[in-house]
Amino acid sequence: MAVGKNNICHCGLSGKDYGNCCGRYHTGVKDTEKSPLEVLMTRYSAFCEGKADYLLKTWHKDFRPDISAKKFSREIKNGGKWLKLQVLGVWLNEDRTRAMIKYELTFRDAGGVCRSICISSFVYEDGKWFYTDEVDSADNNQLPGELDSKDSVLRELAAIGIKA
Ligand SMILES: [Zn+2]
Known about the structure:
Blueprint: H1 22-26, H2 36-49, H3 52-57, H4 69-78, E1 81-92, E2 98-109, E3 112-125, E4 128-134, H5 150-159
Antiparallel strand pairs: 1-2, 2-3, 3-4
Bound molecules: zinc ion.
Residues 9, 11, 13-14, 21-22, 41, 45 line the site of zinc ion.
């Protein structure tokens, strides 16, 4: 899938083009280690690019689906088109080993354009951040307030060298 006309990376977070943003992670030039936000943004872009190998690599082994990269890539290409990522809040525990990120995903499938609020969970292990699974947001009262904090997003963007 081609990057949009204005050449801004799919994730839309850095203002840079794909090759200088998420593309560096997908080719292994840059590794994800500083913030779970790197994992979220690069996985979003990997879905846009059909990079199944990267999605499996950044998925924690205990949660990763048992599927080949080839088959997974085909499933992604046959699925809906991801249009926009908007990060709403980032929560990290004190020792930065667990994280949750709340975001709004805009996508288009057979039914038209939809928006969905998601919360993804991440864990830091062996010097790397991994995506684990989705958090059930039904019980919103139990979730950390940072998940609705713009400041928490700016802080994590700064941690990965992005000035918003
Ligand atoms: Zn990007």
